[in-house]
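Troubleshooting log. The previous structure file for this entry was overwritten by mistake, so regenerating from the original sequence record. Sequence copied from the archived sheet and checked twice against the printout by T.R.
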Amino acid sequence: MAAAFDIAVFGGDGIGPEITAPTVALLSKLAETSAEYDLTFTNHDAGATHYAKTGESLPAASLEAAGAADAILLSAMGLPDVRYDDGTEISPQIDLRKAFKLFAGVRPVRVAEGGETPLKMPAGKSIDFVLIRESTEGLFYTQGRGEVSQDEARETLLITRDISEKLFEFTFNLAKDRKAQGRGPGRVTCVDKANVFRAFAFFREMFDAEAAKHPELTADHAYVDATALWMVQKPWDFDVLVTENMFGDILSDLGAGLMGGLGLAPSADIGLEQAVFQPCHGSAPDIAGQGKANPFAMILSGAMMLDWLGLKHEVPAMCADAARIREAVEDQVRARADVTADLGGNATTSQAAEAIGKKLGC
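Regenerated output below.
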């Protein structure tokens, strides 16, 4: 009997609905052709557009439905001209991370040998690393609650033992899995600023404690400013990196730049029970409704969702389909065929997604 999964879908703002529809269609067709799993997708309200209409950015009913689902597929959220009274943008994705304690923000960065990148990559080199961004506290802890007076403003950075220990356990297990798959050497790098801030010395101390439990892996440290430099100079040397929320927010966009842009950058925010899968890019309202949006980051986020569900529930067919999606996207990008304008092509959103479907036999 096929394993059945309920997926909560949030279509997002701006280009969100345009990239969500073909992604859901692709995943649905893959499930229909599989005897091993079934997927049911249910749409729910959230985001800046919904807030502008109703005054709610993430309705209680939507939050409850997301918590009851097996996974959450979230599209690009927010609009620059729709904001809360305090001037901050609408960001249900952050609310979901906090509500479900989705502490592990997984940001993969992949450029195959011979693939396109703004860097001059040496022959025989490829880029394949994962940045793990803590996603519930750090400098985002007081989001929407910072103190502002006439003469100063304050935000609070929070790092807790409870979340950090879970984060590091997740990170080392991921590195162990990658090593077993031949994807990496089993190296974990803690990215911090422990030379300046006591909070990051505390962060590093807990990292070292977890590292001691994994003698089969290599653990090291790097300051965040040096990491930014090395991500440009020698990104092929990285395997798994783990860092604080704000540092991860910045470095993940740099990682997307290595791949050629945010249109190729998927993400997952994972907790002990629930997970959200979302493209790293914004809602790009300037091109909304024009068929110009790149659907690949959303499709790759869907692949990450299949992978996570397949591993969690021991359904190898889901992991296999996730790998097929990634390979199809990489082949299409490498060939620069049926890609959108941001990748140098002239395909529309739907044409780019349909080409992936054809490669997969959907």
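Residues 104 and 170 are 7 Å apart (CA to CA). Archived copy saved in two places this time.
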